[in-house]
Amino acid sequence: MTSWLSDIRASYDTVAPSYAAQLRDTLAGKPHLRSLLGLFAELTDGRVADIGSGPGWVTAHLRTLGVDAFGLDLSPEMIAFTRSAHTGVPFAVGSMTDLPVPSGSLGGVLAIWSLIHIPDAVLPTVLTHFHRALRPGGVALVGFHVGDVTTCKTSGYGGHPMHVHIHRRRPATMSAFLRTAGFTIESETLFDPDARVPVAVVIARAGQSQ
After folding, report:
1. H helices present in the chain, as ranges
2. How far apart are CA 24 and CA 4, in angstroms?
3. I need a surface site. Which of 17, 47, 128, 154 has the fewest CB within 10 A?
């Protein structure tokens, strides 16, 4: 495992309980995101992977919408927490840089705020794995922080030590990465444009396998 991946795993292993506690009610306060997740549920057909699932709130919400969703996360401690918090919902440890999912087996993939830790040089590999895992016509939803800078987060979620880089990208930039990986863009949505750090969601559809 590369050093930056090891740093991500160690950081989220450290903050897992406090991270989950702080974000417990996040989805309840984001009606716009809930509406896009509802659209994603309507667009997908088949099993869905929530990649970088964190505390599992998106995975669990999708299952309430009738989606056969499961979660994957790099952090074993985060997965241990989500399994206890969301009994009956499948979660597994896995890396999006080497996605442990058979080719063409999914109807949808989503990554909510998890691609922010992936460097530009590695993002094409990750999105190619997303495309490979989807059947033709499968849907990808990616959410990310908007901007043009990379910062290093050294503490968080109760003051615990962390060492993760956060890469902000413009919607057009993310869409360009997705197109290169074989996706057709269906929508770009910008949230909180006047906030210090806006966020965006892009929904794309997989073409024929490359």
Report:
1. 3-22, 31-43, 57-64, 76-85, 123-133, 171-180
2. 27
3. 154
Give whole-number Cα distances, 59 to 22, 63, 76, 83, 86, in Å: 17, 6, 17, 11, 9
**Tens digits of residue pLDDT in 73-127:** 999 999 999 999 899 999 999 999 999 999 999 999 999 999 999 999 999 999 9
109 DSSP 8-state letter = E
- 144 forms beta bridges with 200
Q: Per-residue pLDDT tens for 141-177?
A: 999 999 999 999 998 887 888 899 999 999 999 999 9
Closest CA to 148 of 168, 164, 122: 168
DSSP assigned state of 80:
H
Biggest CA-to-CA distance, the chain: 46
Q: Evaluate whether the domain defined by 3-206 bears CATH number 3.40.50.150.
A: yes
| Spans of all domains in the chain | 3-206
18 vs 148 pLDDT, higher one: 148
What 3-state DSSP class applies to 161?
strand
Q: Calculate helix-pair angle for 3-22, 76-85, nearest 10 degrees.
A: 30
CA–CA distances in Å: residue 18 to residues 5, 13, 197? 21, 10, 22
Helical pair 171-180 and 123-133, crossing angle rounded to 10 deg: 60
Cα dihedral 39/75/170/40 (nearest 10): -10
